[in-house]
């Protein structure tokens, strides 16, 4: 644990699921100078505003958790928004961090950066070795650009900008929108509402066969801080100049059907699960090879059943917020 817990640390995207978890974890560890800014206070799409923010504050570290995110439906419907906004956000923040002489930054990517047919489990070396999944290609390309931005500032200017690639995340402050959310919050809401209506069945997109890996957001936050605190030489030895990102996950996956059945049990729904095979499945399997991170001393600690119980309890306690 570092001694200077009062150094200014900026968490970009603190109102999102991951950013909020990072703030909670930093606070729990005793960090006393955590900088945040809401969208009304700082528009991350405004380059001048972001530069001014970094000029105003003497920031020591940045956690770049801000992003435009969504599930298959959202990515299919708004591809231009996803590539444009994510490119602008990461470009503005990484460049402003450099201009503000911030030496340490952590960029949060996504496991969708890997090719659709990548060998499973997916190693960091699979990046740029094949075509991406078409349903989220624009978002994935933006995230790949973020990784390469960090690597490029490291190579050209000697910065210590690191990247982590999380698997599918879920937990408190997730997006529970009925159409634009990821699979876990979408299923929590759908199955809960079916229970409330005493429905005989609930319909789930796709065949239920795709395999997915799920990581609780509190584990993700802990992993982010662990990676950020690694000695620069240790991090460099575990990575490569042109392959500097690190996978973050559990190393264990399950089918969408198994996920839905677990949620059915957690929520207490008595009806049937019906799978709509006319809807897209997306990538057949997405499992990360997390051996690099485990070699650096970190492993996930929250099991799927426990994590889903936590996520559902948060949904129940924050339903008005979660439904927006």
From TrEMBL:
Substrate binds at residues 190, 205, 212, 281. Pathway: Nucleotide-sugar biosynthesis; GDP-L-fucose biosynthesis via de novo pathway; GDP-L-fucose from GDP-alpha-D-mannose: step 2/2. The record marks 110, 112 as: Important for catalytic activity. One of its GO terms (molecular function) is isomerase activity. Coiled coil: none annotated. Pfam families: Epimerase. This is GDP-L-fucose synthase. It comes from Kushneria phyllosphaerae. The gene is fcl.
